[in-house]
Amino acid sequence: MPANKPKFYLTTPIYYTNGLPHIGHTYSTIVCDTIRRYKRMRGYDVAMTTGTDEHGVNVERAAKKAGVPESEFVAKMAAEWKVLWDELGIPSDEFIRTTDLKHAHTVQWLFKLCRENGFVYPGHYTGQYCIYDNAYVDVKPGENCPDCGRPTETVTEANYFFKLSAFQKPLLNWYAKHPEFIQPESRRNEILSFVEGGLRDLSITRTSVRWGIPVPGEEPHVFYVWFDALTAYLSAVGGPNYEKQGYWPADVHIVGKDIIRFHTVYWPAFLMAAGLPIPKQVWAHGWFLMDAAKMSKSKGNVVTPRPIVGVLGMDALRYYLLRETVFGQDGNFSYDTLVTRYNSDLANGLGNLASRTTAMIEKYFGGSVPNPSDATKFTSDDENLDQQVRLRADVLARDETPMGALYRLEELDFSRALEAIWSFISSVDMYLTSTQPWVLAEDPTKKERLGRVLYTAAESLRFIAVLAYPVLPQTAEKLWKQLGQNTAIGSQNPSGLTWGSLKPGTKIEKPQPLFPRIEKAEAIERMESMENEPQKQSAPVTPATPATMLTAGGAAAATAPAANEKIGIEDFAKVEMRVGQIKTAERIVGADKLLKLTVDIGTEIRQICAGIAQYYEPEKLIGRKVAVVVNLAPRKLRGVESNGMIVAASVGPEGRPVLAGFPDEDVEIGARLK
Ligand code: MSP
Questions:
Q1: Residue 53 shares a structural domain with residue 114
Q2: In terms of pTM, does the model score above 0.90?
Q3: At what angle do helices 380-396 and 447-468 cross, to 10 degrees?
């Protein structure tokens, strides 16, 4: 990565581990992933942090209820969260757990700085506390939490206080100097009036809670969960050594509107007190509501991502969440509107345009992109139609006009960016309807015109693929390949899109539907019944097994029998393993852990993805002999087909993969392992 790339750092909230991810959490993470992909395309060196917020009385109680120690409880939950993000293709660059040692050190360091600078003092506090929001609330004993409506508890304890009151002016000055700090505008106003109303000092340690990061030399004090959790953003990128990594201050914290105050009042105040740089922006998105209420486990109105992804695919979920609501506002979630969008915008819209264009190129030009020919050869009416498409494509790819999708992406105005792209899709559709290439094809003298029309449609699709990539990475990559492009779509700079760059003669791939149409009632029924199945464990709960078959992310793919359960030789014989030789190896853009390999297994060359990218240089693998499971059903990993598995040992607590091999004797390619 060239050293001169500007850095860009963004974060999702650090999620509580007392539940599993639902669509609301998935939304925050999808938003971040979209920004990450967009910024990478624009040439930034981007780091995205997510993680788990694992301390506090809530976890203490949940672990007790489950009858396990807190550390075990949170380890299992954190693994669930991490696996889900990996599985959905939205892994973080940094996954921080608030029980990580490096995080504890950062929290203790931040506290020390605040204390040395005179902003911490000891005291006592009595008040109503909401254990669900982890916040003292301004209500009388017996009253419920004004934010979430659940019962509060009276807590009296010795604490260390943070002099938040001293930061009223500095914060107001900061907001005035950096009007972009709090987004959207409505939230900014809300925070301004809150801070103008005066700030009370905040207790930042607890003696009534055991499960937390200890305050050094002050046990039994542990840190207040928000002092702890917010600091995770900094511990993920170097903590006390943040300057070395160069990502801090964060460019944007993406949060839900319920936690904006913690991020725009407490967090900058802690950092100011410590003399550390303040993040550049906090963006608060709205909530996804179910039946007009915020989704929450306690209300039982939760929708989770796996069933949707299983039935409609991840890109459909990403598209729906980002298209359906204006970023910053609340939105309603329903399976009905989800499937409607899927069928109308994805299957009939983008999918149909792509398949009719590629099918006609296949049929009329043998699968090669036709030559656009000289415009002067066509009637002025024809030329006008072509010109309109070209102009619209150019505007779409601009970042200085609100009509441009890039302008909207830059503004994090995802729904309008998608609206602009989809309105372009319908104008290209209309162009095909008016130019009627299928009629032109019947007249051999119109061959050049036909070529021009299909070139225009294919070139439009190239623009669409690049511009839609941040939101629809898997689909855009498929489309990119269908258009015969063999570069990495994730590193195309959308602002460099120039009309006419699609080379005539490029061989397109055989047309394949991007989004097969689906019957609404059936899709909803499938998603609902999957949602109602008992939650499956997806994350490995026990430490990594000694030998792991590597596919995506190095995760063991099959369900292993319990440790003491034996299998018969006939079971083992079902697995066909052969010696293979790696012929090519390359990184997969957007999948940091995966390498795409081609492997000679004696009878054929297979494409296999392996989760070893963080440990093996692709060039050094070429020629290496490896053990391959060859009779595994093919599957797609991050949109790339994988036809088999490479066997590796999983070493150490991180599960570092070490490829099984045959270094001492020469073995024949294709030999069976038994
Ligand atoms: N642990 C704190 C955050 C600490 S950040 C230093 C927390 N965790 S959370 O798991 O409860 O929520 C994480 C995020 O998910 C919040 O930003 C919240 O707004 C978001 N969502 C939870 N439910 C939601 C919806 N129904 N819709 C959209 N987002 C919502 O708060």
A1: yes
A2: no
A3: 10
